[in-house]
């Protein structure tokens, strides 16, 4: 069960920067319709850096853990650096082998974030 | 209506100075070699079913579904959808596992050698009606037996282990 390594499960059970998005002016949402995954993200950028980021929604362990890990990755980073994050880097950061079928789970958070940057 | 694809067997007459005349009827939409092996395969499958007897196949499917419903009901996290009476349901059992997303259930089952379908199964409005994000679906047929159901049940115990 390589894909459910400890860190992934830990992020799934206790997602970071997760909760109510009230107060965010900049918000975006996307879904993997056939999975029933939905991730919404709120962001606050100050002087070109990600000052605050939070996400909400529901999804599988991979979708939720990757969104959680992503928010930790980008907090404090410049928007230029965030723009450079691609699918490959996101999947590498998860440290697990993602099958083609689960790729859209692993990158849903990133898709939403890209709408905001 | 003209053809959407050209190829062998869909032409009647061809000219240099005027348009070709297509073959009559459905032939003009069946360019190229017909799906001969598909037709032969289908015929063989029909004969195989007739030999076994469709009633026997249905009885086997019902028996297996009855057993699966009984065994799956014992797992407290599992909620089964659809009628409990095997006379009015097919050989598929759709369920959710409390607290675990259907895709995660499917992934763990896959690692245990059990292939199931997960997601909306092309019925998003139905899932919304039940307030579900997604569900997992096991299908039984002629080629399965009770031992397969037991492997599924053990796989679900593994799901509990991974996600508890």
Tell me what the structure shows.
- The complex is a heterodimer of chains A (117) and B (164).
- Chain A has 117 residues and is an alpha+beta fold.
- Chain A has helices spanning 6-13, 61-74, 79-84, 87-94, 103-106, 108-116; strands at 26-32, 37-46, 49-58.
- In chain A, strands 1-2-3 form a 3-stranded antiparallel sheet.
- In chain A, helix 1 packs across helix 2 (61-74) and helix 2 (61-74) crosses helix 4.
- The model of chain A has no long low-confidence stretch (mean pLDDT 93).
- With 164 residues, chain B is of the alpha+beta class.
- Helices cover 43% and strands 14% of the residues of chain B.
- Chain B contains 5 helices and 6 strands; from the N terminus they run ββααββαβαβα.
- Chain B has helices at 36-52, 54-73, 102-111, 124-129, 146-163, and strands spanning 11-13, 21-22, 78-81, 92-97, 117-119, 135-139.
- Chain B has a 4-stranded antiparallel sheet with strand order 3-4-6-5, covered by helices on one side. In chain B, strands 1-2 form a two-stranded antiparallel ribbon.
- The longest helix of chain B is centred in the middle third of the chain and has 20 residues, at 54-73.
- Chain B is elongated, with a radius of gyration of 24 Å.
- The mean pLDDT of chain B is 94.
- Chain A binds chain B through residues 1, 3-4, 9, 33-38, 58-63, 102, 105, and chain B through 100-104, 107-108, 111, 118-120, 124, 127, 132-134, 162-163.
